[in-house]
Amino acid sequence: MRTEWKLRAAAIVIALGALAVASHAVQAVGEIREPASYTSYSRRVLPGQTLWDICGKLPYGREDLQDVIDRCRRDNDIPDPGTLQPGKVLLIRVKKQ
Fold first, then answer.
1. Please, which of 47, 77, 90, 93 could form a disulfide with 38 given CB 3.0 to 4.6 Å?
2. pTM higher than 0.85, yes or no?
């Protein structure tokens, strides 16, 4: 009798776990969005310029400038913006409106 109770309890726990996983999967599918379209710009770094200076001069519309800068850092493999070298050409992607 005790073993039967343990089996039922285990079955309930497994069923609840499966339900939780299914719930998260449905939520994740609902959050899938179309990939954003981007307009790409290339800019050559001038002496003394920062990513903030360069990206801030682009028409970034309603997009947060910090998001544009972060994307620029990722796209151009810039781990430390303080090491930006004059003459480097940057690819900068801005979301289309």
1. 93
2. no
